[in-house]
Amino acid sequence: MRRAQVAVVVVVLAAAAAGVEGIMFHLQPNTQKCFKEEIHKNVLVSGEYEVQEAQGQKVDIQVTDSKGHHLYNKEEADNGKFIFNTEDYDVYEICFVSRVPPTIRGIQQEVTLKTKHGVEAKTYEALGEAAKLKPLEIELKRLEDLSESIVQDFSYMRQREEEMRDTNESTNSRVLYLSLFSLCCLIGLATWQVLYLRKFFKAKKLIE
């Protein structure tokens, strides 16, 4: 049995609280392609994928976080959907793994992946039917959730700005103290060198 070749493609995307991402790529036989994305805390994420059929070839899909927790796992996937809610701000990974028997000459497979985040991931029609809401009320609910996600985005950005400012101020203070310490060391070393040379020259009777 030949050794499977593994090719990993990493795509890092800046995640917003609400958004839609779509991508189409070709998966080579016995390879793996992964897509990583940073997502905020308490964000609903949904995905839809479709894998081109190929005789004798199988494709597995895995969705994990940075801690290795499996949020979605399906073997021999052809098409399907997944949905989960993020518990922490983390990097989430979607991997497609091709498996081809050594007796078959594999071909590349076309894979389509669409992901939605936040408001875009919610199915407001189903919520409206369950709560018996009118179309206008459903739209107002969607706009309310969108406004809340925007507020959360600004809050997160402000928090990150404060953290970066604190880090910058702390770094500046440490650099200042280090510079003062280095200056004191240089002054002390120069003073010691002058006194030592003066004593040396006096001992040699080169100066009075």
How would you sum up this structure, described in words?
It comes from Scylla paramamosain (Mud crab). With 208 residues, the protein is an alpha+beta fold. Helix content is 37%, strand content 32%. The protein has a domain at 12-122: GOLD domain (Jelly Rolls, Sandwich), CATH 2.60.120.680. It has helices at residues 124-131, 135-203; strands at residues 12-14, 19-27, 32-39, 44-51, 58-64, 70-74, 79-85, 90-99, 109-117. It has a five-stranded mixed β-sheet with strand order 1-3-8-5-6, with no helix packed on it. Helix 1 (124-131) packs across helix 2. The radius of gyration is 30 Å and the shape is elongated. The chain starts with 11 loop residues before the first strand and ends in a 5-residue tail after the last helix.
